[in-house]
Amino acid sequence: MQQAVFERIVLRMEELSLTQADLMRATGAARGTVSGWINGPNSPSAKYLDSLATALRTTSTWILTGKDDDKSGRLDGNVSLSPIASVGYAPVISWVQAGSWTDMDSINNIEECEMLPLVPGAGKRSFYLEVRGLSNAPHFEEGEKICIDPDWELGNIQTGEMVVVKCDGEATFKALIVETNGYYLKPLNPNWSEQVIPLKENCMLVGKYVGSFRPAKKFNLV
């Protein structure tokens, strides 16, 4: 008896150790949409089919019919590919959510979040935050979306790199200063009131800044 679409999707997920969240990030689909694919009876629409096939390292024909097309069969599972990095998407979360961050599962409304393409080099668990305030102006504009990779350790980050740190349930975005006697945060705006902020023991690294997504803007040519 031929497998159903959802059975083939689940089979490839198991073979590649992919989770539902991985497929959400790879395709940009909402949690409910992906749940419909893996629990049946919904089949992926044309909007998501190509990116889903890439994430599953297969072809859209195989997903829908179980057969490989003549032009490109299923990709060899031994080939080292990174579908999440090549076609992946990441959610834009709030600063409140960043302040309570533990992992992607702690974002309980991820299916409602805006999804943006991952910047090159970002890990598959990365997410976006929207810049607020002027503490890092003019280098970071208010409203700019910054991509944060949580899979970094403080000891591997160098002075001058940008980080998101949470202290007492609040998250902040600043440049890191590494000294022999500890870590400090510094805003890039030279006019900001607090120029050097000691990193207290109760503070925790949320992630390292790895790139930005800047919306298109209109320039005043007058």
CATH class of the largest domain: Mainly Beta
Straight-line N-to-C gap: 69 Å
**How many beta-strand elements?**
9
Second rung of CATH, namely the architecture of the largest domain: Ribbon
Specify the number of helices.
Answer: 7
Q: Uncertain runs with pLDDT below 50, 5 residues or more?
A: 70-87
Number of domains: 2
SSE succession: HHHHHHEHEEEEEEEE
> What share of the residues does DSSP label as strand, in percent?
15-25%
Estimate the global geometry from the Cα principal axes: elongated
Q: At the third CATH level, what is the topology name of the largest domain?
A: Umud Fragment, subunit A
Helix content: 10-25%
CATH superfamily of the largest domain: Umud Fragment, subunit A
Neighbour order of strands in the largest sheet: 3-4-9-5-6-7-8
Give an overview of the whole structure:
The chain is α+β, with helices and mostly antiparallel strands. The chain has two domains: 5-77, 434 Repressor (Amino-terminal Domain); 89-213, Ribbon (Umud Fragment, subunit A). Helix content is 25%, strand content 22%. The chain has helices at residues 5-16, 20-27, 31-39, 46-55, 60-65, 83-87, 95-99, and strands at residues 89-91, 115-117, 127-130, 145-149, 162-167, 170-179, 182-186, 197-198, 204-213. The strands form two sheets. A seven-stranded antiparallel beta sheet has the order 3-4-9-5-6-7-8. Helix 2 packs across helix 4. The chain is elongated, with a radius of gyration of 21 Å. The protein starts with a helix and ends in a 9-residue tail after the last strand.
